[in-house]
Amino acid sequence: MTEKEFFDYLLETYAEKTGRDLPAESMGYYLEYFLDNYPPEKLELKLTKKICARIFHEFMINILKIPDVDWKKAGELKDIYDCRVCANAIAQVYERGIMSEAKEKVFGLNELVSKEDAVKYVNLFLNLAEAGNESECNIDA
Question: From its phi and psi, is residue 120 left (phi > 0), alpha (psi between -120 and 50) or beta?
Fold first, then answer.
């Protein structure tokens, strides 16, 4: 699955599941990049876990208005700071159980996300959206 395919899938699934339209403005720079300014030469970029986490986190903040939670277990991930820009986004999806470790204490920032995993992550994420709070998701769903 590519970054753009994942972004489009998230938006479509969100609209279908919630019946809500996305706001035309205030999506934030990062999400607007995928919506309006995504360059054609990047269309084949495969989705990594860190980009997936960033998209989810920006969606939480800008669309769902869900505040960040304090880090509890995310600080124990050995690779949490391998991408300093991504660290908080990774922590937020990890703490909520939307995305899990690749192996013990390793998130696996650069691992590719399969279509099956992307679907699972989006379902978990939208369960959070429906709850409308910062509660954890059921990663085993």
Answer: alpha
User: Helix/strand/coil (H, E, C) string of the chain?
Assistant: CEHHHHHHHHHHHHHHHHCCCCCCCCCCHHHHHHHHCCCHHHCCCECEHHHHHHHHHHHHHHHHCCCCCCCCCHHHCCCCCCCCCCHHHHHHHHHCCCCCCCECCECCCCCECCHHHHHHHHHHHHHHHHHCCCCCCCCCC
Q: Which two tokens stand for residue 7?
A: 């972004």
Diameter over CA atoms, the chain: 40
pLDDT by residue, tens only, the chain of 141 residues: 999 999 889 989 998 988 887 766 677 777 777 777 777 777 788 999 999 999 999 999 988 889 999 999 999 999 999 999 999 999 999 999 999 999 999 999 999 999 999 999 999 999 877 776 444 444 333
